[in-house]
Specification:
The structure is a single chain. This protein is of the alpha+beta class. The protein has helices at 4-21, 33-43, 48-61, 65-70, 73-80, 87-103, 111-115, 122-133, 142-151, 161-174, 180-193, 212-216, 262-265, 267-270, 285-295, 355-370, and strands spanning 232-242, 247-250, 278-280, 308-309, 313-317, 320-330, 341-344. The strands form two sheets. Strands 1, 3, 4, 5 and 6 form a five-stranded mixed beta sheet that branches. A two-stranded antiparallel ribbon has the order 2-7. A hairpin with a 2-residue loop joins strand 5 and strand 6. Helix 9 crosses helix 10 (161-174). Bound molecules: iron/sulfur cluster (SF4). Residues 147, 150-151, 194-195, 200-202, 205, 207-208, 211, 213-214, 219 line the site of iron/sulfur cluster (SF4).
């Protein structure tokens, strides 16, 4: 652990590097806790380049905490649509409402109050408080963990509780008390740009002289790899209805009391958002989808709907590997289903939908274009589907 003059020099060099070379990002330089909070939530498990346009669009629509707290949830999800991990958006809005109700709309500045907000964990609370309020809380996320592990040549499972605590102690000890906000961002920036998981660029590193892993030539080997969780394969079949006007049918976010449980939809496809009728299967996807549509009262008993396969869509969420098989079902009129909405298949994002649902829509449109069939096909004459038009 660095102490005394070495620690002072370490802090000085890292801060100077950060202030000169930090990336130009839209949330840099702001002390507005609402903006800092929004950026931290959006950056969870999401790359910086992906977040930038969403961050800007979100602020245009919800420029402050009050606007976010007062908006309909569906509108918040629509603006978030495509960024993934939608519980973040729901929690963000619930926390904004909490702040309005419990703190008169002023973002709290005490750690325990920030930790009490929906969706805010230890890392996020510390990041917001240090950046927006200059509170002396050191952060510990994946980037910081890697940098600290290399600086101190720490081996083993970094997420084991004892080792994690030791690294949090190091982060606290290294924290620059004069500029905690810049300091936390500097360590994270080092981890994101130079001290990267693969091939750290030690020759360009502003604190290379303090790094034990570099001295021992083991920077590439740290942090040590942990066993991967076994991947679970999930196969889903999705029904993409298309009527004569090019409209499709989306089901609302699954509720606990829905007869079709989330496990049948495939949680990843629905993400608690609007989605195509979807079911998991092992054998024949069409047979399973037919019976699923019957359960939803979207299929007539004759079973005459025609299912036209589109290209499979593959998606990975943490340890789940998902394959979706979309089937276009051309009908004269869309089935009438309580709670479902009719939207243009080419513009399903008028409702909040997941990226996977969008990709399924695109795959279906591409398949229709390939077969040179108009999307607005005419239903087989014998097919009778209940409708409400
Ligand atoms: S010297 Fe290399 S391994 Fe050490 S902190 Fe810098 S980039 Fe990371």
């Amino acid at each position: 652990m660095l102490t005394g003059q070495a620690l002072a020099a370490f802090r000085k060099q890292l801060l100077a590097w950060f202030r000169q070379f930090q990336r130009d990002l839209p949330w840099r330089g702001t002390r507005d806790p609402y903006r800092v909070w929004l950026s931290e939530i959006m950056l969870q498990q999401t790359r910086v380049a992906t977040v930038v346009p969403y961050y800007q669009r979100f602020l245009e629509r919800f420029p402050n905490l009050h606007a976010l707290a007062a908006a309909p949830e569906e509108e918040v999800l629509r603006v978030w649509s495509g960024l993934g991990y939608y519980s973040r958006a729901r929690n963000l809005q619930k926390a904004a409402q909490q702040i309005v109700a419990e703190h008169r709309g002023e973002f709290p500045s005490r750690l325990e109050d920030v930790l009490a907000l929906r969706g805010v964990g230890n890392y996020t609370a510390r990041a917001i408080l240090s950046i927006a309020f200059e509170k002396t809380h050191a952060v510990l996320d994946g980037n910081v963990l890697r940098v600290l592990a290399r600086l101190g040549a720490v081996r083993g499972d970094l997420r084991a509780s004892l080792r994690w605590q030791e690294l949090q102690d190091s982060a606290d000890a290294y924290l620059d008390r004069e500029s905690p906000g810049d300091w936390n961002q500097a360590v994270m920036e080092l981890g994101a740009t130079l001290c990267t998981p693969k091939s750290p660029q030690c020759l360009l590193c502003p604190v290379a002289q303090f790094c034990q892993a570099r001295k021992w030539g083991i920077a590439d080997l740290l942090p040590e790899k942990q066993k991967k969780r076994v991947t679970v394969e999930l196969r889903l079949a999705a029904a993409v209805f298309a009527d004569e006007r090019g409209r499709t049918l989306l089901l609302p976010p699954p509720q606990r009391h829905n007869p079709e449980r989330l496990v049948d939809y495939g949680a990843a496809l629905a993400s608690n958002l609007w989605h195509f009728p979807t079911v998991s299967f092992n054998g024949d996807p069409i047979a399973k989808l037919r019976s699923h549509l019957r359960k939803l009262q979207m299929h007539n008993q004759d079973g005459n709907l025609q299912f036209v396969a589109a290209d499979k869509v593959r998606h990975t969420v943490t340890y789940r590997s998902i394959t979706v098989e979309p089937f276009r079902i051309s009908v004269r009129k869309l089935p009438c289903v309580k709670g479902a909405k009719r939207v243009p298949l080419r513009e399903i994002t008028v409702l909040p939908v997941s990226n996977l649902t969008r990709t399924v829509a695109r795959a279906t449109l591409a398949a229709a274009a390939k077969q040179s069939e108009p999307l607005e096909c005419v239903e087989r004459p014998e097919t009778r589907i209940p409708h409400s038009d």
